[in-house]
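Continuing the series of single-chain predictions for the mutant panel. This is the parent chain; the variants come on the following pages.
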Amino acid sequence: MSSLAISFDSLGMDSIEDPLALLPRTPLRRYGKNQVIYGPQERVEALYLIVDGRVKISRPRDDWEVALAFLQKDDFLGDAVFLGLDRQGEQATALAETSLMAWPIGELKRLLLRTPALGPAFLRYQAQKLSEANARIESLCLDPLKRRLVAALLYMGQRVGQPGDDRFVHILPITHEQLSSYLGTSRELVTQYMNLLRREGLLRYSRRGLDLDLPALQGYLQREAAAESSESD
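Parent structure:
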């Protein structure tokens, strides 16, 4: 089973400030549902912050789309600004009415010079994203689909879930098509396993989205890890 992403707090980096606390406010840019914020061939112009709404980061192909991430409030996008690239290499699409703040490259460079703490703050942010990406790649290589789906739902619930009834947390709607592009499989298989998880009581559908039983999802992954460990002994 794939390993968990490391925690940078455990490495003594918890004293580094959050970049959100160091960046000045900028005028809001508003995007409608399904509006493209930037495409893979567009020039890198700015770093963006989601103030409200949801954004999908993806890599379009001729007849397929790979979803890289689903971002929410207080997430950054436009990371190519840190890599010195001329083109974005990915597409950002608003999944709902979305408001963003943006810092153009020139302004960002000036902020980094004026605010020394901003560099380590962004370094920590990027390092955490890299750790999560490595864990996801490992999971795609090693874990069966049901385990990957459970892990993805648990991750989303822990990051953006809102407390609901009993032990459930609520997340906004996400389609089976979006989940399939994130997990690298077909929509039909995602539907099959989502129905299975619903019958097992790990999730339930509501008019407002999806309710997740986080302890049950975590328990499933722990049982899978224990079973795998006993098989290897």
